[in-house]
Structures are given as C-alpha cells and as structure tokens.
Amino acid sequence: MLALSQKSKAQKLLLAVALLELFIGLSHLGYAYYVKFTWEYDEALYDWDDVGGNYGVFWLFWGVLTLLYSFGEVNKIKIPVLLLLSVPLFMGGIATLALVDRLFGELAFDVFTIFALLYSVLFFESLIVIVFLWKSS
C-alpha cells in the first residue's frame, strides 16, 4: 500500500503530522457529538462551536490536505508545505502557551487540557518537520 521505507524522513514526519491532525479533528467531532447526545443540550445555550464542532471539521479537512501533500515529493515543494504547516504551528503555539499558563496556574484537568496537549504535540511535530525540510536543502 504505502512504501514508507522509500519515503524521505520529512515525508514520514509530514504523514505523522497529517495523522495527528486527523486524530485531533475526529476527537473534536467525537466530543461535540458526545455533548450533543448525552448532555442536556439546549441550542439557545450551546452552539456547535461551543463544544468544538467547527474545530473538528477544520482539522479533519486540514488533515486530509496535509495527507495529500505527504504523498508528494516534499523536498521539491517546500514553500507550499511550509505554508501548510504554518497553521498547526500557530494553533499549536497558542495551545502550548495556554498549557504552560495552566500548568503554572490552577491545574484543572478537563477535556480542553487534553486538546491543549494534542495541539502541543502537533506544534513540536510540525517544528521537527520544518527543521528536516530546512536541513534537506
């Protein structure tokens, strides 16, 4: 199916970023549907975006786009890949700062802390892909 042994290190890491983005998107959608079907869901009180539904749709489509780019020759299309990775870097950087603020402040572990951890992993993984792209030039 996929010959991962023939792919470069940057392509393998970009594939890992795409799979993590897909996992984050599915996690957001799963949590949004969990809230919608199990809580006392009042549409006047909650919106689809309040429970992470829009984030789920965005990360699912962004993960598919990243997955499509991971099948190409990443070392030859560096600028589009860098633009593609700018969104996970930005969102992951914000989530990492929020996670550090939460760790040094009042630590209340909830579902949003889990999402902040996932975004932090996405941030550092995207940073590693950019370093490997930079070293391959």
Task: Give a structural overview.
This protein has 137 residues and is an all-alpha fold. The chain is built from four helices and no strands. The longest helix has 30 residues, at 9-38. The radius of gyration is 17 Å and the shape is globular. The relative contact order is 0.16. The mean pLDDT is 84.
Helix percentage: over 70%
Globular, elongated, flat, extended or rod-shaped: what is the shape?
globular
Poorly predicted parts = none
Strand/helix succession:
HHHH
Q: Which strand-content bin applies to the residues?
A: under 5%
The structural class is mainly alpha
* Largest beta-sheet characterization: none
Q: Enumerate how many helices there are, as a single number.
A: 4
- Give the distance, in angstroms, between the N- and C-terminal Cα atoms: 28 Å
Q: Assembly state here?
A: single chain
Q: Mean pLDDT score, rounded?
A: 84
Q: Which value, in Å, is the CA radius of gyration?
A: 17 Å
Number of strands: 0
